Amino acid sequence: MMRLLLLREARRAWRAGAWLPIAFFLLVAALIPFGVGPDPRVLERIGVGVMWVAAVLAALLPIERLVEPDLADGTIDQLVLRGVSEEWIAASKILGHWLGFGPMLLFATFPATILLGSEGAGLERLLVGLAIGTPALAALSVAVAALTAGLSRAGALAGLLLLPVAIPLLIFGAGEGPSALKFEAATALALLVGSLFVTAAALRAARR
Fold it and tell me: Using one digit for the tens of pLDDT, what is the confidence trace for 82-121?
C-alpha cells in the first residue's frame, strides 16, 4: 500500500507541474546578477545563500495541492478506513513531494551556480547542503499544507508558518565547513521527524 501511495503522490507531483519550482529556482539565479551587478566576487559570496532562499520558496510553490484536495474529496478518509494510518499517509506525501522537486532541484544547481559564478567548491557545498536539506523542506511544506488545509488564503499563511521554521536549516545549509553540515543534518532530521508527526496529527484533526 505504501508503494502505491508513493507512486500516486509522485505522479500527482509531475502532472501538476513539477517543472514550476525548478523554473522558479533558475529564474532567481538568472535575475540576481541584474540586481546586484556582474561582479563575480559579489556573486560568489552571496550565491549559496541566494540559492537556499530560492530552494525554500520553490518548495512552497505547490503547497495548496499537497493535502487540501485529498481532504476535500474524501481520499484520506477512504485510506484510513482501509487501515492506512495517518503517519503512512504523511510519509508518502512527504516523499512524493520531495521526488517531485528535490532531484530536479539538485540537477538545476549546475546551471544556477554557473549563472552566479559559484562553480567548484561553491557548487559542491550547495549540492551537499541541498541534498541534506531538501527532504526537510518537503516535510515542512507537507506539514504546513496539512495545518492550513481548508483555510482561506492558505498559500500566504503557509509561507508565514514555514519560513520562520526553515531559518535554522537555511543558516546551516548556507554555512561553510563540516560543522555547518553536521548542524544542518541534525536540524533536517529533527524537522523531518517532527513534520511527519505534525502532519499526521493535522490529518486526524481535519477528519473530525
Answer: 888 889 989 988 988 888 888 888 888 888 887 777 666 6
Q: Are the CB atoms for 59 and 103 separated by under 8 Å?
A: no
pLDDT, tens only, 38-90: 777 777 777 788 888 888 888 888 888 888 888 888 888 888 888 888 899 89
- Looking up cell 526537510 gives 136
End-to-end, the C-alpha distance of the chain in Å comes to: 24
Using CA of residue 36, residue 41, residue 43, residue 48, what is the dihedral sign?
negative
Gap between the Cα atoms of 54 and 21, Å rounded: 9
Q: What is the DSSP letter of 64?
A: G
CB 134 within 8 A of CB 106: yes
Could you tell me how far CA 181 lies from the centroid of its own chain?
Answer: 18
Helix (H, G, I), strand (E, B) or coil at 37: coil
Say which amino acid occupies 78: Q
Query: Residue 150, exposed/middle/buried by CB under 10 A (0-12, 13-18, 19+)?
Result: exposed
Angle, in degrees to the nearest 10, between helices 19-36 and 40-60: 150
The helix-helix angle for 178-207 and 86-116 (nearest 10°) equals 140
